[in-house]
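Q: Now give one record:
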Amino acid sequence: MKLRLLFLAIAVTTFTASNGQNVDEILSKYFSNTGGLDKWKALKSRTSAGKAMMGPGQEFPFSVYEMAPNRQKFVINVQGTELIAQAYDGKDAWMLNPFAGGKDPVKMDDEQAKDVKDEMFEDNFIDYGKKGHEVTLEGTEEIDGVKCFKIKLVRNKKNDKDDITEYHFFDSENFVPIVVARYIRSGPQKGTEVRTYLSDYQEVGGLMFPFSMEQKVNGQTGFKMTIEKITLNDIADESIFAFPKK
């Protein structure tokens, strides 16, 4: 591992010298081009609504509620029935799936809840050093004909939590991420790469967001979201994330 990191360090140094870019400059342009760092830091909640595709010809309305520091709730409406794919209230990660015979919400076990609990609302690249993350530039890579800066993000590198490694591919012309590669952390597919393709960036409240997100595993689309509306700083009551009490 240390030898591999040494080779990467040499490659990054060479790349930076020849291209005049380093990782902080790229991230600075990213935030500048998408609305400005101050506006991103001022963002405290977001609600997204649109259509989710979960198979050929299967399209359902969805809503995603997110609130700082790490509250979230993902709701899918399937033929008038509400399915809560995942939710987190700061203490409990939970879900509700009436189609699996469950009329009541259930808490996720520790293994299932890993990704949900570790997902923070604020962009991981904001003050990444203070958060204990490590960010490195690993050169360029072409994605579907687009030259991208390949940035490696290791979340919680300086904390006691498990490291979470991701790769973010930033369009070298517009300095926005168009692909994020993550790895399944539990279950039979543990270690499998999942790529999320981001496109159709649109402005909302002075900030730029991707309105199309497509997840692929081994090149095959498993899930796709088309956002129709985003509202910002609209959630005042965090009780909407709470695990329901009987």
